[in-house]
Amino acid sequence: MANLFKRVFSEGFRAFFLAAAIWAILSGVMWELWLGAQASGGTAGLSDLSMPPHLWHAHEMLFGYAGAAVAGFFLTAVASGRGMIIGALAALWLAGRVVLWSSAALPPVLVAVVDLSFLAALVVRIAGQLRKRLNPQHAIFLVFLVTLLVANLLVHLEWAGVTLDTASAGLRVGLLALCGLIVVLGGRVTPGFIRNAMNRAGKPPETLPPHTPRLDRLAVLMAIALPWSVLIPMLAPVVALALAVIHGLRLSRWRPHWALRDPLLWSLFAAQFLMVIGFVLWAFAGWGIGDEVGALHVLGLGGIGGMTLAVMSRATLGHTGRAPIVPGIVAVGYGLMILSALTRWLAAELLYRWYDPLILLAGAAWIGAFTLFLVGMIPALTGPRVARAAPPPPPPTPPHMKSSAT
């Protein structure tokens, strides 16, 4: 058991990907129970909250689940940490979940300080690593982490009674900051993975996904602006629609038909495609066309949920020495995440009279996706690193070739 704990806290992705998946399941079950009680006319079990249950749900999806997933990625890719550092950060993250759950019995300032300390410590850790070895490609991610921290602060300021009507804005800023982060990260990893797959298949260089530096720069600028556009309601739909067009163009040039061959590839494309659709839906909702909550769930479930699930799978396999071949049940989980996003949107937009059963189905699909992820990936997340197999030796030279060579 001691070796297991030592291994889990030896690398950031192990501890935080496990935490993210477990919290996705637990918080999802809590939310499902509350929704079921509400639908049947009963009372819910979320009575220890000082905030409305739907705001707790939104907060924990963004700053609880996604916060852990983001931490696992950056503590592996940017700021490596061992033992005490990862353990301390994990303790801060867990403390945030506990104080939010018990918020009705605690001073709101204490809840805010404890919950905000995790993201603040993560920002300090990553900024310190970047200061030691500055990498402009990594520095841009710090912008999104700081935005996420400020978004969480906006939420807590209202809950503590310091401000009025900032929690809703903070939740939207946080969600769109995560979407912006995915636009930037997806633009780096997705075409690279496709190129690798095509190279292995022997495809000529001219058929590979082209480099699009102008589109990439525009995408980064729009991704940074998107979260803060929430504060200017007239501007937000324009920025969202522009980013949808720009990122949609990028996706179309990354040879998406090649993604169909591999779950680790099509899951990346599916998540980013749903995010583009979510941007469009959210933009139109800002102009009074369509339901905003449905659009936000397409972004949150399909975009953020789908992308984090795919990246956690790929990073776990890669950093434990395993081949980039996802277990079949995890691939089924990718499909459940898509089902969750589409079902939740249908409930809000088209099939309102079946709202209760549809949102319960969406929640069940979310829980199922992460349950399958845990079952399929827990051997890699908790087990030892696997030594990569050496390439096979060249075939022996036939005797007649040896004699002719001499």
Automatic annotation (TrEMBL):
<feature type="transmembrane region" description="Helical">
    <location>
        <begin position="169"/>
        <end position="190"/>
    </location>
</feature>
<feature type="transmembrane region" description="Helical">
    <location>
        <begin position="325"/>
        <end position="346"/>
    </location>
</feature>
<feature type="transmembrane region" description="Helical">
    <location>
        <begin position="12"/>
        <end position="34"/>
    </location>
</feature>
<dbReference type="InterPro" id="IPR010266">
    <property type="entry name" value="NnrS"/>
</dbReference>
<feature type="transmembrane region" description="Helical">
    <location>
        <begin position="109"/>
        <end position="127"/>
    </location>
</feature>
<feature type="transmembrane region" description="Helical">
    <location>
        <begin position="218"/>
        <end position="246"/>
    </location>
</feature>
<feature type="transmembrane region" description="Helical">
    <location>
        <begin position="54"/>
        <end position="78"/>
    </location>
</feature>
<keyword id="KW-1133">Transmembrane helix</keyword>
<keyword id="KW-0812">Transmembrane</keyword>
<feature type="transmembrane region" description="Helical">
    <location>
        <begin position="139"/>
        <end position="157"/>
    </location>
</feature>
<keyword id="KW-0472">Membrane</keyword>
<feature type="transmembrane region" description="Helical">
    <location>
        <begin position="85"/>
        <end position="103"/>
    </location>
</feature>
<dbReference type="Pfam" id="PF05940">
    <property type="entry name" value="NnrS"/>
</dbReference>
<protein>
    <submittedName>
        <fullName>Uncharacterized protein involved in response to NO</fullName>
    </submittedName>
</protein>
<feature type="transmembrane region" description="Helical">
    <location>
        <begin position="294"/>
        <end position="313"/>
    </location>
</feature>
<feature type="transmembrane region" description="Helical">
    <location>
        <begin position="358"/>
        <end position="381"/>
    </location>
</feature>
<feature type="transmembrane region" description="Helical">
    <location>
        <begin position="266"/>
        <end position="287"/>
    </location>
</feature>
